[in-house]
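> run fold DUF309 domain-containing protein
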Amino acid sequence: MEAQLRAGIAIYNAGATHAAHDAWEDVWLDLSEGTNDERLLHGLIQFTAAVHHAHNRNWSGAVGLAESGREYLSGVPSTYRGVDLSVVTDYLQGLQTDPERIERAGPPALSYNDRRLSAADLELDAITIAAAVLAEEFDRYDETVIDAAADYAREEVDGSQTQFIGLLTTFVDESTHRGIVYDRLAAQVERRQRKERDVAGLFDPADEE
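> ok
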């Protein structure tokens, strides 16, 4: 759960408020109803949905989600699993009363262990989760490219090279230049795959006389 929790927070803080819930949803569905873990993820999902609806000026939807989000988080400690929930519940209360406030002041960042979490703060498993979620969210990106990059990044963990780890991290964090970063990532994946095909061809029995 920890990797998914942190991945979703980093996605949200990078500005992809709608996508953030996808990092949490599968874990949340498997949790026992009413536990603090379940209420935490349910409340965060409602929070990001409320923000999304408010951004789209669906005021009634935002109000309803803000109310239910506060209810889910009401029984959870104000800081739980490292997440500062007080800023979340305070903002939900304000959004429930005045959803148009989002046009005057944006939603708060989510903090984890007293810091604004980004992909640069994550372990590789959370980075790959976040990158996969963003690839699924936006049609611009090919999920198979991100999956391949994640495999290559895992190969880098115990080595001196961090090319794919760095590009995946930047892909998550840099919302403004994400498309450019993706193009670089896709080019590196294609280059690596081409090398693998070339090496495999050297040992292809069909080429042996």
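The chain has a mean pLDDT of 92.
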